[in-house]
Amino acid sequence: MQHLFPKGFWWGSSASATQTEGAANIEGKGQNIWDYWYEKEPNRFFNRVGPENTSQFYYRYKEDIALMKEIGHNSFRLSISWSRMFPNGKGKVNDKAIEFYNCVIDELVAAGVEPFVNLYHFDMPITMQNIGGWSSREVVDAYVEYATTCFKLFGDRVKKWFTHNEPIVPVEGGYLYDFHYPNEVDFGKAVQVGYNTILSSAKAIQAYKELGQHGKIGIILNLTPSYPRSQHPADVKASKLADIIFNRSFLDPSVKGEFPAELVSLLKKEGYMPTIDEGDIDIIKANTVDLLGVNYYQPRRVKAKEHLPNPEGPFMPNRFFDNYVMPGRKMNPHRGWEIYEKGVYDILINVKENYGNIECFISENGMGVEGEERFRDKSGIIQDDYRIEFIEEHLKWVHKAIQEGANVKGYHLWTFMDNWSWTNAYKNRYGFVSVNLEKDAERSIKKSGQWFKKVSENNGF
Ligand code: BG6
Predict the structure, then answer these.
(1) 370 in catalytic set
(2) pLDDT above 90 (res 181)
(3) List 107, 114, 364, 372, catalytic entry
(4) CATH topology for the 10-458 domain
(5) 114 carries an active-site annotation
(6) Which residue in 248, 251, 245, 260 sits closest to 218, CA to CA?
């Protein structure tokens, strides 16, 4: 075995509530921004497919958890739907939601698959969005109430919690680049939303610690390394700014309890400092994460700006850099994303060297493929050799980082089974298990799922 991983390595996958559960408008669940936006503008979703049914995990979780076990999972990350737990975002809790999550958690534990539970994966209850979403302090308080309720109800069995998944994505999607509701373009609000999200994470961590449940609590960040086009000082400066804005903005406060000084001075200089209440900074400082989830799909390549930005245009982060398309880059042609396996190693070494070698794991990595049905063979199995190669090449770099002392505890693929992916709906398939939408969402293990079983059993390859 060339790549043996540390004993007890977490082998599994990750998913989220809105993308898998279905039963979106029934069973006591309230609407979240996705249910609402789809109702209002179905044309914004690929093939006009919305979140009502998704992959039916709500009804089929037993079958799905059995499949997880079959393909060698010892851990699985799911998220809890805030609007299923609290149909109005706060106040009365939905008993059917408690029952559902209790059943899922019990089923996972019984199958020997440790549940890793994330509290927020892009799915703001619409009642909370209507009062400002993450830009509102009232929503931060409601989130802490929701998080505390979950700790109390499920914390006896769940020992790995996460406050947020990719918290910068709702900032980008909802307040800068128009791919999440509320589709605003407002840099000042984006900064406030980002800041309040970090505060909500620290407050949830504080609440968790106060309960003394002896588990771990962390955050999941999409850490996208920023590579400059060249070593020209202008390119290097551009890549540093991109790193500060997109990575360190969340990584530093989450792990070190403080914001990067360069980010603070940039926001001050440009006149975009958020409103910070007395005591906030102390809460952020005192409540850092125990565990860091790293999501990695593709690198960010940048260069110095070619042209001055439109002085009348909205203020955007790319005022400081341009994206760079590197000639000869390796592509996933099915998704249009660059594949750069060494990126995962660079992230892990950075975390080791600059973030106290905090305990971490790969919480998402994966390869989206459009039209994957064409790879199904006569026996009905999707022959996704490209995915096996993708995972293997990334795992080699994870292994190397571990050899060099990085504190990496596991690898979760995005995702367990094909799921609904926001405005892309079912366009790109990522799962170990295929979900055949033509055949009542029939599940079947892909070649990569069978391969993963062996990797997990052997603890390496
Ligand atoms: C990740 C998100 O960033 O990307 C997931 O955490 C999402 O929720 C995944 O599904 C893949 O995105 P896409 O757009 O390729 O389907």
Answers:
(1) no
(2) yes
(3) 364
(4) TIM Barrel (3.20.20)
(5) no
(6) 251
Integer Cα distance of 355 and 248 in angstroms: 11
CA of 419 to the centre of ligand 1 (A): 10
Domain ranges, ordered by start, for the chain:
10-458
Taking only the tens place, the pLDDT of each residue in 319-357 is 999 999 999 999 998 888 999 999 999 999 999 999 999
Marked catalytic residue, from 21, 107, 114, 166: 166
Percentage of the chain lying above the pLDDT 90 cut: 99
pLDDT of residue 457: 98
CA of 210 to the centre of ligand 1 (A): 33
- Beta strands in 194-326, from DSSP E residues, in sequence order: 216-222, 226-228, 291-295, 300-303, 322-323
Q: What is the pLDDT of residue 334?
A: 86
Query: How big is the chain by its Cα radius of gyration, in Å?
Result: 21
- In this structure, the residues whose C-beta lies within 6 A of any atom of ligand 1 are 16, 165-166, 222, 295, 335, 364, 368, 414, 421, 424, 428
For residue 156, what are the contacts with CB-CB under 8 A and spacing of at least 6? 213
